[in-house]
Amino acid sequence: MTARRSGDGRAFRRVTEELRTRMADGTYPRGALLPSQRELAEEFGVSRDTVQRVIQELGNESWIENRQGTRARVIKNQRIQSETARATRSRRPMTLDPLISEAFEQPEVTLDVYTLTSESLDVHIRRQDERIRAGVIAPERIALRMLLPSESLELPYPRAVNDEDAHRLRDRFRTITRRSTESLHQVLEGLRAEKLVPSVDLEIRHAPLTPTFKLYVINGAEVLHGLYRVVERALVLESGDQVRALDVLGLGATLTHHVQDDDPDSAGTIFVDTMRRWYDSVWDLLAEGPQ
Questions:
Q1: Is the dihedral of CA 159, 3, 184, 133 positive or negative?
Q2: Where would I find the HTH gntR-type domain in this sequence (predicted)?
Q3: Average pLDDT over all residues of the chain
Q4: Which residues constitute the domain of residue 219?
């Protein structure tokens, strides 16, 4: 029974992450109907029970509207506000996926990331792994630095509304973070070991800070910045139980996009330089290595 629950938990997170990403990147735009639960179960090779829990989780996060007897409808996606026209070749509303994809089309890819967990980053890196293995792109170097909160830090979120659920929620948070960082290690180390990318560097450090925003510094010249919004909602545990909690929504948050240009006094250049300096200062002076 324990093994089955563990496997179901991994399947639950995998399907949830993928559907979140599809809604965030516009694959399922706002107003679209998701595939039926039967179709989702067949596509992902999971049970209907797992799909039902995923739909419940996405409804709790306000991604979808789910009414009995009808297919779930998307009511939210991720928005990126940008004043630059060079961000993507697409003329659709800007999303994170094409920005990460464009970064990986360069010979050298550098990503500095500050986040609460590495869950959504793991999804995006695995998408680029698929493109590399398919021969669509061929970066020569990937360098990823990631700042996460210290594991010993008492975070204000996610936090259980009822004290008796606190330890289960802490375990859930740590499991998600460790699973995602392990996946990142496996994916990037696989690219290096198989010589699909000649140079791969991944370093993760922990800082005694509670992230109030998510930050991506992309190839040293672009920044994505988004504030975490605190909400009270139900979180679905891997056991299938629900826990009321204060949490933040990362993937669904609006991100602002800033690009460094040739003008040292432009708003974009100043913002990128400021965030890059902030990141380096925390990395060098506050953060510690693997815990």
A1: negative
A2: 9-78
A3: 86
A4: 80-285
